[in-house]
Amino acid sequence: MDLQEEVVKVGFIDRPLPEGVDLVKAIQLLKEQKNAVILAHYYVADEIQAIADFVGDSYALAQYSQKVNASMIVFCGVHFMAETAKILNPNAKVILPDLHAGCSLADAAPEAAFRDFKALHPDAVVVSYINCTAAVKSMSDYICTSSNAVDVVKAIPLDKEIIFAPDANLGRYVEKVTGRKMHIWEGACMVHVNISDAKLAQLMELRPEAILIAHPECPSSILDKAAFIGSTKALIDHVSKSDHHCFIVATEAGILFKMREAAPGKILIPAPSFENNTCACAECPYMKMNTLEKLYNALQYELPMVHIDPHVQEGALKALQNMLSI
Ligand code: 13P
Ligand code: SF4
């Protein structure tokens, strides 16, 4: 099977590693040889965040991808993030270590169904959360992330109808903060909706000294109890600046790696999820598809590469630029 066939079939390059290789050193060496940068989201495994040139939330990663001067961007995150990097920096080779690293939110808004939804509200301004496909971005007026969704919606004139997609929890949170009623697409993040309300209530009773902080992809039943709501970056900043000592963190558990670095000595308790009775914290299976082995092979073979359909590039770029300019 040639390399491209392998990528199509399994999503990543599954070649044996050189015997006895020190993966961290080998990745660093390959990166320098190829003028590549490694970007990572806060939800990927600790060892990948530790080796990355830049770790950030979706907004910071988009900004960094646009500005970085490198021949190759290896994006340790999920597919929509790597697509965003390619749209913003079309001359760079953008590599995603596992092409099957998707997102339940992006999957929730297929292109054709989204076009039909838009047709129901032809006068509406379309605001799409960055967790969507390039095709959906190209049908949007603005992209937003969890760090700027409120500001993006506030920037739209009051007499305009708004479509908000694909995260219904974020959409309802924005409605509550801004007082704007929107046409909301009913998508959800499989990780944040899996945080158990009942287990969380028990934990809060057990640890009354702990402050609940939450990502806005959580359902309103959790957000209503939270003392602070924000993007991954905002949650990290809040914990490091706050006078409080103990936090329950309602988002994907990978965030704890950088949060511990930013706030050494503070007590950080991951919010419990429904199914996972062993480690009992919320983990994104897609983010966790990024491994050091796949990262090494991705750099070595410069695959899997992310491509953008030329038909959607221009529209998606415009919607992203409209966000970045706010
Ligand atoms: P942010 O990093 O923008 O908060 O997004 C969280 C997320 O779910 C990424 O998939
Ligand atoms: Fe998508 Fe949720 Fe995973 Fe983020 S945590 S990539 S929103 S499934």
* Rounded Rg: 20 Å
CATH topology description of the largest domain: Rossmann fold
Helix and strand composition category: alpha/beta
Ends: how far apart?
A: 47 Å
Give the mean pLDDT. Answer: 96
What percentage of amino acids are in beta strands?
5-15%
CATH class of the largest domain equals: Alpha Beta
Bound ligands, each once: 1,3-dihydroxyacetonephosphate, iron/sulfur cluster
- What string, H for helix and E for strand, traces the elements in order? HHEHEHEHEHHEHEHEHEHEHEHEHEHH
List the helices and strands and how they pair.
Layout: H1 3-10, H2 23-33, E1 36-41, H3 46-51, E2 54-56, H4 58-67, E3 72-76, H5 79-88, E4 93-95, H6 104-107, H7 111-120, E5 125-129, H8 134-138, E6 142-144, H9 149-154, E7 162-165, H10 168-178, E8 183-184, H11 197-206, E9 211-214, H12 220-223, E10 228-229, H13 232-241, E11 246-250, H14 256-262, E12 267-270, H15 292-301, H16 310-324
Parallel strand pairs: 1-2, 1-3, 3-4, 5-6, 5-7, 7-8, 9-10, 9-11, 11-12
Helix pairs in contact: 2-15, 4-5
This protein binds 1,3-dihydroxyacetonephosphate and iron/sulfur cluster.
Question: Any overview of this molecule?
Answer:
This protein has 16 helices and twelve strands. The protein has 326 residues and is α/β, with parallel strands linked by helices. It has three domains: 3-101 and 287-307, 3-Layer(aba) Sandwich (Rossmann fold); 105-189, 3-Layer(aba) Sandwich (Rossmann fold); 195-270, 3-Layer(aba) Sandwich (Rossmann fold). The strands form three sheets. Strands 2-1-3-4 form a four-stranded parallel β-sheet, with helices on both faces. The chain has a four-stranded parallel β-sheet with strand order 6-5-7-8. Strand 3 (72-76), helix 5 and strand 4 (93-95) form a beta-alpha-beta unit. Helix 4 runs parallel beside helix 5 (79-88). The chain binds 1,3-dihydroxyacetonephosphate and iron/sulfur cluster. Residues 57-59, 131, 145-147, 189, 215, 217, 231-232 line the site of 1,3-dihydroxyacetonephosphate.
